Input
Amino acid sequence: MYIVAIGWLYVSLMMAAAEATNSDGSLLGAIITFICYGLIPVSLLLYFMQRASRRRKAANPPQGTSLPPDAGGHAASASQPGSVAPVREES
Output
């Protein structure tokens, strides 16, 4: 996702450099070119992609255990679903 934004900013920077070094160009034209062709489109693209990513994460919460954590401090028993029986060391 970011490689496209970086590439586009590079291209718009080169366009601005060509505008600034051209005999008919100006520094103000180069700045306007970079802002209008580079910064504004990339910032809008990243904003909308970040917003869509947040919506996707909100719509699909991560799959995890539905059981609340054990707050008692005791080892989990094997009779509870999704729990692992404690392992004892042999002496």
In short: Helices lie at 2-21, 27-59.
